Amino acid sequence: MFIARIRIMLKPTVRDAQGATVEKALKNLGYEEVSDLRIGRQIVVKLDGQQEQEVRRRVEEMCQKLLANPVIEDYEVEITVAEPTSPSSASRPADEG
Amino acid sequence: MKRFGVVIFPGSNCDADVYHAVRDLVGAPVDYIWHEQRDLAGVDCVILPGGFSYGDYLRAGAIARFSPVMEAVAEHARKGGLVLGICNGFQILLEAGLLPGAMLRNSHQRFACKYVHVRVENARTIFTRAARPGAVWRIPIAHGEGNYFASPETISQLERNGQIVLRYCDARGDATPEANPNGSVGNIAGICNEEGNILGMMPHPERCCDPILGSSDGRLIFESILGAPVGAAGVG
């Protein structure tokens, strides 16, 4: 089991009006030191697979097909192995088969 | 007489207005097409209506573009059939790659719901031939993501090919920055593909086909499709 963490941002050549608005809001709160604030999205998804390379290839396909719009967005993919879930420490009732 | 089909996606909400405008105000035959249909039942013009298909989740139109009906729409377009995308319909056509470019959130970060003016840049398309070139229409918009974007190369191509069909303008017909309700590049409000059989527009023609609603300029789109000659509606 793998976990893919995908970060999607507007391309640097696209004006981020939402980012500019939030930057202004921060400055209004007194954080004069901020600049070039841009907002994107993160998608986290579990994938059933054996090989990281194949998983990565499939995730890249997903990004190109659906998750990101290549006209206006860039994306970055990070793949990690999912932590195995720890077995339950609760004991089963004695009479359960 | 040409037949229309209005696609309904989960979340579409302007389908009934389009249906009513076409059937009752313009007087043309029209059917609904559910997004899971793989066959357009022989309609001449498919309309993708406005709304919030799939809640605008991920990106407006990003999921609707994969609805089963879209394969039939693409095939219909490939064969020269007419496709009209209104608002969310335009967004779906962009995501599907049937029209070039993409939509961004309105530059002022607000949902804009008001009457605007657009200028007919290309009155030779099937969708605008009932208008005079340069005609100024009064037509409402209602969108949060109408900020049309395309690379400079794409924009040059659109300009060269006459693919920019409608541009936001003021009442006098000047395409000023003040007349731009969402920050779209070049005040672009509507574009067509190279072949001219697919039109995407952000404003809502189906909301202004009746003088009681404040404008009848929207009729010109539907009358153009039906083959009305220039000046048929007496306006524009």
Total of DSSP H or I helical runs spanning 4+ residues of chain B = 5
- Count of DSSP strands of chain A: 3
| Inertia-based shape of chain B | globular
Main sheet attributes: strand count, strand direction, barrel closure of chain A: 3 strands, antiparallel
Mean pLDDT of chain A: 90
Structural class of chain A: alpha+beta
The largest sheet of chain B has its strands arranged as 2-1-3-4-11-10-9-6-7
Summed up, the domain count of chain B is 1
Question: Helix/strand/pairing class of chain B, anyone?
Answer: alpha/beta
N→C terminal distance of chain B: 23 Å
Task: Give an overview in words.
The complex is a heterodimer of chains A (97) and B (236). Chain A has 97 residues and is of the alpha+beta class. Chain A has a single domain (2-81), classed as Phosphoribosylformylglycinamidine synthase subunit PurS (Mth169, Chain: A, 2-Layer Sandwich). Chain A has helices at residues 17-28, 52-67, and strands spanning 2-10, 41-47, 73-81. Chain A has a three-stranded antiparallel beta sheet with strand order 2-1-3, covered by helices on one side. Chain B has 236 residues and is of the alpha/beta class. Chain B has one domain: Class I glutamine amidotransferase (GATase) domain (Rossmann fold). The two termini of chain B are 23 Å apart. Classes of the chains: A alpha+beta (97), B alpha/beta (236).
